[in-house]
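To: structure subgroup
Subject: Chain for Friday's discussion

All,

I'm putting the inputs and outputs inline so they're searchable in the archive.
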Amino acid sequence: MNTLHTPTIMFSSFATLVIFGVFFGLAWRQDRKSVELMIWSCAFFIGALGFVLLALRGDGYQFLTVSLGNALAVLALAMIWLGLRAFDNRPLKIASALAGPVLWIAITYFSDHFQESVTSRIVLYSVLIFAYSALVAIEIFRSENFRRLPSSYIVAFVFVSHGAFYLVRIPLILLWPLAGNTASGAEQPVWYQFVTFELFLHCLAGGFAFFALVAERTQQRYKLASETDALTGVPNRRAFLAQLDTSLAEGPREGALLYMDIDHFKSINDRYGHAAGDQVLVEFTEIVSKTVPRGAFIARMGGEEFAVCLPRSDRPGAIAVAEAIRAAFEGCRLGTSKGVLSATVSIGITLIEERREPHAIISAADAALYAAKSGGRNAVWIIDGSGVPKFGAGANGKDASTAAMISLRPPRGGTASRQPGA
């Protein structure tokens, strides 16, 4: 007596594959750039067609049902792997995906032994399923993008377990051979019924896992967009404050924060146009990104203002980084429709060890930046624990008495504020 009715399980698997094929096809119509959705939709439909052909097979070998039907099932799994590579923006290996199905057709069509031996065909089929299941799992574990998505581990588990089931089929088929045609409802060994049921669970769990994967990526993209400056591609003020808060809570006590403002930016926009102004902002961001050390994080705080946090940096190190940024930007020349454009930047620095609250740190660095502006611009100024800004590096400097006077400026958020483009 059959513990599980194999034809019913196969029909359920077929219906599941069709449903997921439709859903992924509709999702692809909404997002034509997501090639993986189209590939997965085709994979589910191809798998469903393979089930139809397998359900029609009779006694003995038939090319359409045995060779082509199983080849389509293998191809469906290979296309799942291709979809994962597309999801991860990796090159599609079409030849590798087709190798398994083509090998299956060639061996079963030209070999009399495989045509006559169900056991040999099951061994070969199990090896191919295991191989492509392993490729799916490897694709996930080797990618940093997948490791950011929790549901990717569910996908990996689904396919690792699926491959393991088919690998176990090899000794089982040798010890307990099948009884007649598996699609006719003839009583089969219990292990075969449970492996067939696992196939249904695999189709169901795999489809839902891929939907979860797509949903998590979409959520991640929206979150990234909300925390990224659209023009320069660096984090915005909101993301910077959150990262700074985390760094202060978990990181070392030493460090420095650079607050930077491009000099006379309003004049650049007025003279050369806003497109040129945007070009200046992008170029400045690239200079900063190339100059700061590994572990630093950057943000556009608004308008022409930028900030950089340098964890573990001391006073000389912070001044050296700031001066490298200032000098590189001063030496940059940008060609525009209205002539060659050059610009400078003023930078204020505060040491994080003196303060542990994000807004207090930014306010102190802003005060140092104001000192740099008042001191002649195109310079680096630093504020110490006493609250007195001092000249650090650059083209212009002021003595300590002047620095003391300009340090009386109210912090950001007070009644006085620096005008845009100042």
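Points worth raising on Friday:
The chain has a mean pLDDT of 84.
The longest strand covers residues 255-262.

D.
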